[in-house]
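Show me any protein, keeping tokens residue-aligned.
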Amino acid sequence: MRDTPVIGVLALQGDVREHLIALASADAQARPVRRPEELAEVDGLVLPGGESTTMSKLAVLFGMLDPLRERVRDGMPVYGTCAGMILLADKILDPRAGQETIGGIDMIVRRNAFGRQNESFEAAVEVTGVDGGPVEGVFIRAPWVESVGARAEVVAEHDGHIVAVRQGNALATSFHPELTGDHRVHALFVDMVRAVG
């Protein structure tokens, strides 16, 4: 693995630019990924926040859903924030019609669990594996994790709810660290990608 891993951001919908900036600041070579041939060229992938139902439909439309599932199954490091967390869940408690997931983390998530857009908030969150004190979590129509299976590790909770989970090479947070200027969670993910090499 090269010192500067190539990490893609799934660029079908959502806050792609902010993740590209955060990854670059964490010493990764960051690039948008929209097509299977672009996915084949990256060492790891971020699934950004956005609207999970729309993202899953666009992934089907762009021919990305099966290649994504295959790469995640094969151990490619992947990090999902908010809607990205929903995409990484093996099960959604309340899926919309036609909503599919990539899977990869043995967890059940609840969509929009923290409330609607106008109930968005910020909170300090202690994340296992991130040094230097809590990170500022931005929660926007955020999911939470109802339960995890034996293979998944809870790495953060807020207000009694699971908000970050790691399973092998997969990491998911229900909050948006890319919106704060604090790139320690992205640095953790970049280290996960380097470790696979």
In short: Residues 106 and 150 are 8 Å apart (CA to CA).
